[in-house]
Amino acid sequence: MDLKQMNRLFKPQSIAVVGASNQVGKIGHTVVKNLLESQYDGKIYPINPKDAEVQGLKAYKSVLEVPEDIDSAVITVPASLVEQVVEECGKKGVGGLIIITSGFSEVGNRDLENRIVEIARRYGTRIQGPNIVGTMSNSNKMNASFGPFLPFPGKATLISQSGALLLAIDASTYTRGIGFDKLISIGNMSDIDFADCIDWLNEDEDTTCITLYIEGFKDGRKFIESSRVAKKPIIALKSGVSAHGAAAAASHTGSLAGAAKVYGAAFQQSGVVQASDLDNLFNRTLALSLQPPMKGDNLLIITNGGGVGVLATDAAEHSGMPLRFAPPELQTELKKHMPEFGSAKNPVDLTGMAGLEWYYDSIRYSFTHPWVDGICVLYCETAMTDPMEIARGVKQALDESGVKDKPIAVSMVGGERCTKAMRWLVDNGIPSYGAPDTAVNGMAALREYYRMQAMLKEPLETRREFDHEAAIKIIEHARADGRDSLTEIEAKQVFSVYGLNVTATHLATTEEEAVQLSTKIGYPVVMKIVSPDILHKSDAGGVKVNIKDEAAVRDAFRTIMTNAKAYRADARIHGIAIQEMAPWGTEVILGSVNDPTFGPTMMFGLGGIFVEVLKDVTFRVAPVSCGQAERMLGEIRGAPILMGVRGEKPRDRQALAETICAYSTMILDLADEISESDANPVLVYEEGKGVKVVDARIILKKK
Ligand code: ADP
Ligand code: MG
């Protein structure tokens, strides 16, 4: 990626405003005014064909007339003029364009959008937008937007696909006291997308946390690649997760919103912390932008009130970090800084009598204690204590402890004095929140971030030995037959190319052949209809299990044929599959979709007839490493079933994870061929005894 041009775009030394105006109310007026008011320290070149001066600055008729170099150009002229302006900016050698103008792909005008991108690419110029608010940057003192003012200063950078939301966030940063260095609007993402911004922000020393508001990606894999290697925390709020929301997002930006579960999976795989709503996005951003990751699960809560302590305890459990009792020697030490009726267990309750000193002593000691991985300090306003004093005590304890690699968050419950004290804490790098559960949730974000970073260090090995050509041959044979799906027999052949353990299956076209094959395989056998027109074989009365002898084979052969013809008179029938009868095992389903945003994506869930009702499934974008596959097994609600419930032995989770991993290799290798597939069911046996795929289905991409 061209970081140099991105640098000129986001940190320009000089900016042209194309469409700059003296007329109040025009966007070209607001942008120049904003640049002046934010005291932008670079050069500003207003471009206006008529006026010689704009807001006291010398104006030019075109960027081509400007004698000096131009790093970035804000474009506010109507859509019909943008093409020509982009061409001129290209000729001038402008690094990047902030195209505020709307009227492109978001209203169906894709051709025009493609054309401006084409022109810009020809000159190596980058495009931000179109259909955006612009960029606001505190470190550059640059409000290159039509938003009212620079955001409350801080260390996070927000990238927003929605312009309106960015404006709303800008204003609310002051009331919330949550700071941002930059707010960047990327709108239609015709050229620069989330991944490009992440790559650039990764090197930006003014940004410690990358905050994303996402409606939908165009290229999900590019996002995963950039996020996986990011050196700083990324937090994302994805909107449009409900079916209705997805439709709204699509009409807003012209990009399609993908399924919530697939996005969630992609975030997990790329180490992106998720936010549940806008408040949560802000609160988590605050913690992630100010504090180091939390390396272990031992969160210590120090409080002066039992009630808030319990709320925080609940929140800790809810966020996947249930509290543990502090070790005895830590408790003994803490006991020294509280009255007799206090508690040193965790939450550490200093009681309402706690003043500055007890807070100071207990924080300072705990922070250096090896057992403690992070501290959440809670304070309820009391008549005897001054919140500002407590805040200073917290800061002093931290500074003097010398510990820099453990996080802390504060919650103060009270009035105006608490608000002031918390503002002071945030200014001093300590995230502070009005509600105890919010503070704990901020700590949870730091914990999640650390966990995901550790996971990203695991090797992503999935490649195994397989014969690509053999798989393609089977698929081509089906295509030559005019089909866009494989029969169970063919699908199982493809599966076994990638090392999946499938039941031995052979095709019988006559009753005699069925008898011979059954003898060869050994009783009991399973018989199933093989027809490209019958995908759900049981529905058609096309499956007979546990067939024990020759007479039963003959009987089943006739019954299945009769049933199939009754089900669908014109069904093409290849014959009947004779397969080994697999012993009983826990039924799970593996499947794949070719997601429009992320490409080949794996699904895992408990199998059986309820899978569609319970929707107890989890996803990963392929490839899925064995480590990731193991996590998938733990993610479904039915996870304990694989651990062995009610006296059952634990299931062979390792073999299952390896199967998921192999399956993901298959869908990635055959990404151009397979549109959907499933193995339903896969039977999972007890530990050490492996798994068996008893049914297989592959739907081909239409060609
Ligand atoms: P479909 O899903 O098309 O109806 P399946 O091949 O999945 O057909 O068969 C239906 C059910 O029969 C399976 O869910 C499984 O419980 C059982 N079954 C199918 N094949 C076998 C086999 N080889 N060994 C044991 N049980 C089988
Ligand atoms: Mg099935």
If you had to describe this structure to a student in words, what would you say it looks like?
This protein has 703 residues and is of the alpha/beta class. The strands form six sheets. The protein has a seven-stranded mixed beta sheet with strand order 9-8-11-10-12-13-14, with helices on both faces. Strands 20, 25, 26, 27, 28, 29 and 30 form a seven-stranded antiparallel beta sheet that branches. Strands 2-1-5-6-7 form a five-stranded parallel beta sheet, with helices on both faces. Helix 3 (79-92) runs parallel beside helix 4 and helix 14 (387-401) runs parallel beside helix 15 (416-427). The longest helix has 21 residues, at 436-456. The site of adenosine-5'-diphosphate (ADP) has 14 residues, from strand 22 and strand 23.
- Approximately what portion of the residues adopt beta-strand conformation? 15-25%
Rg (CA only): 31 Å
What general outline do the C-alpha atoms trace? flat
Bound molecules: adenosine-5'-diphosphate, magnesium ion
Low-confidence stretches: 244-258
Q: Give the strand tally.
A: 30
Q: How are the strands of the biggest sheet laid out side by side?
A: 9-8-11-10-12-13-14
> What's the overall average pLDDT, rounded?
93
Helicity level: 40-55%
Sheet bearing the most strands, described? 7 strands, mixed
Report how far the terminal alpha carbons are from each other. 33 Å
Which structural class do you get from the secondary structure elements? alpha/beta
Determine the number of helices (DSSP H or I, runs of at least 4 residues).
24
